[in-house]
């Protein structure tokens, strides 16, 4: 990282010298020159609704399916795949995973649901046409964090700055995309959601959602969500600050994005949050 920064700074000096404009450009412009990536735009949104969410759900993946939310929850001994009624938060059905599995992101492609595991090197495949039913387990060499799809390929994050495009069914690697913004590589990519041709991503332990152009890997937009829960929740949030709680031990951070392409609504939540919020981009 240090070497890369020095290298980029040297390039910037050379560029500015060559242009004869050593002074005057603002910092944003210089960063753009250094990385070759324009600064992302800030995306405005409206919060439409807040719906109840299981405060024991350590949300790792969220996806809309036929009017319900499918949710994957993590942590050893607490990992599950659930079907949840949006407006009530009621768990309509749930599959509890083996205690040794730490479940992560989910995506649905043609009635087949893929569920990642964090470090178990396994991807669980379910038929969800009726009640979700596990049909097979596929090997995955890396970590699993987030997953979405573009209608053809599955797109997986592993906590790095990379997105892995793989064949459904085999998980054969087709493409690796590096994600960058004006400052360089953007790591900790977590839960993903494909929204109108762009990959939206939670970034672990950051209070924003990224909008990524999957053709370039550039971050083209951000949804600022600083203090989002405190600002928008009507619930008592004191349990999140309780010493020794799961929230304190494991982090009740922003995670979970699901898109309703008909309503143009986006459902967002966080690990152990008391609500799922319906938002819309302006
Ligand atoms: Ca998602």
Detailed description of the structure:
With 282 residues, this protein is mainly beta. The chain has 2 domains: 36 residues, no CATH class; 244 residues, TolB, C-terminal domain (Neuraminidase, 6 Propeller), CATH 2.120.10.30. The protein is 13% helix and 45% strand. It is built from 4 helices and 23 strands. The longest helix has 18 residues. It starts with a helix and ends with a strand. The chain binds calcium ion. The site of calcium ion has 9 residues, from β3, β17 and β21.
- CATH fold node name of the largest domain: Neuraminidase
Percentage of residues in helical conformation: 10-25%
Strand order of the largest sheet: 1-20-19-18-17
Give the beta-strand count.
23
The CATH class of the largest domain, by name, is Mainly Beta
Q: By CATH's scheme, which homologous superfamily of the largest domain applies?
A: TolB, C-terminal domain
Helix count? 4
Span of the ends, CA to CA: 36 Å
Identify the bound ligands.
calcium ion
Largest sheet: 5 strands, mixed
Q: Measured on Cα atoms, how large is the radius of gyration?
A: 20 Å
Low-pLDDT runs of 5+ residues are 1-29
- CATH architecture heading of the largest domain: 6 Propeller
Helix and strand content put the structural class at mainly beta
- The ordered H/E elements are HHEEEEEEEEEEEEEEEEEEEEHHEEE
Mean pLDDT over the full residue set = 90
